[in-house]
Amino acid sequence: MAVSPVELIIGAQIEEGPLTFPSFPHKQAEPRRLSSHLRGTLTRMPSQLEGAMDALITVFYNYSGNDGDKYKLNKGELKQLLNSELTDFLTSQKDPMLVEKIMNDLDSNKDNEVDFNEFVVLVAALTVACNDFFQEQQMKKAK
């Protein structure tokens, strides 16, 4: 079984030099969760946050690199990711230029691609918006 990037960090005994990830999830693989095995020994179950981190990494690399740089999403890959992973979000929007606007907003270095750091900005912004909506709904119920 392949070791996830989060498992590598959690279970790694850091030696001199940079920590590298020997492999990324296979393209269009089923979403994985952190396994309970690392180097053949049983480890603790991942926390919810560790699982969420692993899921973000897995989703990103499931879509990146199909057309070019395997560490970045081009516009087509970003659109495919958004359509597949955030279907309800996209269908609730009325703007036909939404993907282009998201791409332009995320692409901070203007290379017409979205790297993982830029992708995480999108996920964080959407998560904050969802939390704000949730809090508003809770306040309405409390009244």
Automatic annotation (TrEMBL):
Keyword Transmembrane appears in the UniProt entry: no
Pfam families assigned to the protein according to its UniProt record, in alphabetical order: S_100
Domain EF-hand: 94-129
Keywords: Calcium, Metal-binding, Repeat
InterPro entries in the cross-refs: EF-hand-dom_pair, EF_Hand_1_Ca_BS, EF_hand_dom, S100/CaBP7/8-like_CS, S100_Ca-bd_sub, S100Z
UniProt-recorded Gene Ontology molecular function terms: calcium ion binding; calcium-dependent protein binding
Domain of life: Eukaryota
Keyword match Repeat: yes
Protein name: Protein S100
Gene this protein is translated from: s100z
